Amino acid sequence: MNGFAPGDRSPPSIPSLSIIGSLLNCPCFFQQLQKKYGDLYSLMMGSHKVLIVNNHHHAKEVLIKKGKIFAGRPRTVIKLLVNSRWERYSVSLCMFGEGSVSIEKIICREASSMCDMLTDPEHAVDLAPELTCAVTNVVCALCFNSSYKRGDAEFESMLRYSQGIVDTDSLVDIFPWLQIFPNKDLKILRQCVSVRDKLLQKKYEEHKVNYSDNVQRDLLDALLRAKRSSENNNTSTHDVGLTEDRVLRTVGDIFGAGVEITTTVLKWSIAYLVHNPPVQRKVQQELDNKIGKDRHPQLSDRGNLPYLEATIREVLRIRPVSPLLIPHVALQDTSVGEYTVQKGTRVIINPCSSESVNITKYTESSNPIGRFLNEEGDGLCCPSASYLPFGAGVRVCLGEALAKMELFLFLSWILQKFTMPTGQPLSDLQDKFGVVLQHKKFKVIAKLRADWEKNPTNAAMLGKYIMCVFCTLETFVREFVFMKPAIKYHKSNMNKMNILRQCNSMININ
Ligand code: HEM
């Protein structure tokens, strides 16, 4: 009965073996099954019972109405290696909320160095390394207060391990017994995780040596402070999940979740813009009209750049990089719609079930970007109920705010300064299914836009230097003039979320 209670009303069930091959090659494969089996059906993936949810009413029931019942995550092999307790994210990721001035500065600094690296009008280049570098540096700055230049040995090893994790295919998750056989992917994954663990341990030791109760440089400091505070109050760190191992894993997990998906969405966005020159032109017109060339875009411009925001939403709609979200698990016997679901059943929400389109099929008349704009086209409208690129409910993506800031700032900085003409041969932008939905490698020419060619050292450059000086001064004042209060960590206040909220408010002040 595929995990659905005997005698109860179970959803239509699909034979298991026939689907495995196609599933791994085609993320929207479930869309085809939907036509045959309806919105809700079950199947066996290896030994796991899986319920596939294809319509947004059922998706909302799983994610929101019964979010706590479906809050489990499968114990996949990859997850066991890469991260073990998703709950801990709440400790750290609430730090990445909007309005965080310091995060904006970090992203703009990275956007600026990325733009400096892109100027090669003659040759088509693969933008992926620069995008990965920028996104990784944002996460490094948040976690360790470090930023790296390309070529730095530590940084390169970080990039390698992120890639290694992403490239692993999920066959072992479907058939866990495959672990006992030699498996190249799993071996690489284990090596990557070992590199990561050594690096994290090194950062942790450095932070312990330089730690001060009065200065909070990054997430690692915030977690160290919370850990020490709990120890000073003579409480067991074990009770509140702040052992050394947990601190390290929390920071490590942010890399796993934060770097690759954001980089992949950026790559898809560039691909989309190159394939759709009218969209690129409209975004640039909007940037020229609303921002001009004397300064760079800031987060506060988001409300004034609806076309760019709508374009980002469209890319997330047509290429949801976590195509099957991350499976949820039913923590008790329950139901979805009219069907019963047994405890332990995995649930996959299929975001491709709504009208997913091919990336090359944009036309002016179909105007898919318009779906995110109001009638006048000068503001955003509410996306449809089935639009869930970051999931929803208790397991919603905890990096959503950070990811949106990065997508907006990186893309607006690139498009303000560069144009990516279509005259170049375009590669076939096919999906490559892995941990995230990646596309095959492609190269583009990033040409400086006319006004930037004429006057490369314009006011925006001056603005950049003023910002640097301002940042340095601000750091000095914050760290040496104002002494930050330590996180209060009382027995009565032992809840993880409380600690994190305190970390959050402290970071947001920075
Ligand atoms: C455009 C970029 C991103 C997209 C499209 C994305 C999408 C998603 C999706 C679909 C989920 C699963 C939600 C569910 O199961 O209901 C998820 C979970 C998660 N994401 Fe993201 N994500 C992005 C960036 C980030 C970043 C930058 C971070 C952290 C720095 C992050 C951290 C997480 C975490 C920790 C979870 C697990 C939440 C849990 O299990 O409770 N994500 N993300």
UniProtKB/TrEMBL annotation:
<dbReference type="GO" id="GO:0004508">
    <property type="term" value="F:steroid 17-alpha-monooxygenase activity"/>
</dbReference>
<keyword id="KW-0492">Microsome</keyword>
<keyword id="KW-0349">Heme</keyword>
<keyword id="KW-0472">Membrane</keyword>
<keyword id="KW-0560">Oxidoreductase</keyword>
<dbReference type="InterPro" id="IPR001128">
    <property type="entry name" value="Cyt_P450"/>
</dbReference>
<keyword id="KW-0503">Monooxygenase</keyword>
<dbReference type="GO" id="GO:0042446">
    <property type="term" value="P:hormone biosynthetic process"/>
</dbReference>
<dbReference type="GO" id="GO:0042448">
    <property type="term" value="P:progesterone metabolic process"/>
</dbReference>
<dbReference type="GO" id="GO:0005789">
    <property type="term" value="C:endoplasmic reticulum membrane"/>
</dbReference>
<protein>
    <submittedName>
        <fullName>Cytochrome P450 family 17 subfamily A member 1</fullName>
    </submittedName>
</protein>
<dbReference type="GO" id="GO:0005506">
    <property type="term" value="F:iron ion binding"/>
</dbReference>
<dbReference type="Pfam" id="PF00067">
    <property type="entry name" value="p450"/>
</dbReference>
<dbReference type="GO" id="GO:0020037">
    <property type="term" value="F:heme binding"/>
</dbReference>
<comment type="similarity">
    <text>Belongs to the cytochrome P450 family.</text>
</comment>
<keyword id="KW-0408">Iron</keyword>
<keyword id="KW-0256">Endoplasmic reticulum</keyword>
<dbReference type="InterPro" id="IPR017972">
    <property type="entry name" value="Cyt_P450_CS"/>
</dbReference>
<dbReference type="InterPro" id="IPR036396">
    <property type="entry name" value="Cyt_P450_sf"/>
</dbReference>
<keyword id="KW-0479">Metal-binding</keyword>
<dbReference type="GO" id="GO:0006694">
    <property type="term" value="P:steroid biosynthetic process"/>
</dbReference>
<feature type="binding site" description="axial binding residue">
    <location>
        <position position="397"/>
    </location>
    <ligand>
        <name>heme</name>
    </ligand>
</feature>
<dbReference type="InterPro" id="IPR002401">
    <property type="entry name" value="Cyt_P450_E_grp-I"/>
</dbReference>
